[in-house]
């Protein structure tokens, strides 16, 4: 049996905790926690986190209307269904 996955997750948490020392206030820490969660969820889903977060910013209004369509494991399907993206 291997616990490599657990060790990788613990390492990420430790690194995030270390970086969290430099947040100026609790709101900044909350934003950092949300971003860490999004990045690690995207990574575990086999999605490039940079591309994923970029698309979330590009389609902010569609994201607000239907957040469940923009999860890391189904956002590509949502992008394919957008008519404006197909024309671009």
Summarize the structure in words.
Helix 2 (26-44) crosses helix 3 (49-58). The model has no long low-confidence stretch (mean pLDDT 84). Helices cover 72% and strands 0% of the residues. It is flat and about 40 Å long. It is an all-alpha fold and 88 residues long. It is built from 6 helices and no strands.
List keywords for this structure.
88 residues; mainly alpha; 72% helix; flat
In short:
With 88 residues, the chain is mostly helical. 72% of the residues lie in helices and 0% in strands.
The total of helices stands at: 6
Estimate the strand proportion: under 5%
Quick one: how many beta strands? 0
**Biggest sheet record:** none
Topology, element by element:
Elements: H1 4-19, H2 26-44, H3 49-58, H4 60-65, H5 75-81, H6 83-87
Helix pairs in contact: 2-3
